[in-house]
Automatic annotation (TrEMBL):
It holds the Pfam family rve_3. InterPro entries: Integrase_cat-core, RNaseH-like_sf, RNaseH_sf. Residues 30-93 form the Integrase catalytic domain. Residues 1-36 are annotated as: Disordered. This is Integrase catalytic domain-containing protein.
Amino acid sequence: MAIRFPAADQPAAPAESRDACSAPGRRTGPYRPQTSGKVERFNRTLLDEWAYARPYRSDIERREAFAGRLHSYNHHRGHTALAGKPPASRVPT
């Protein structure tokens, strides 16, 4: 018996996700828990606050919502490591 998930529940391929936010592809170094932990936390935040935050009718609809979510994450969502400020506040203008 095979379990099939609706297309909207299938995660986008890493390259598609990376291309959606125009981020360069990078790999974490082996045996680097500091880096791996940051990546894992970011992935979990994306799942909780974007991918599974609400039901999407299709994978396309989910992908279209990604740009807005990424902007919100970087410009409006406070981060505890930055004393409640968003990451964009650290970038000189």
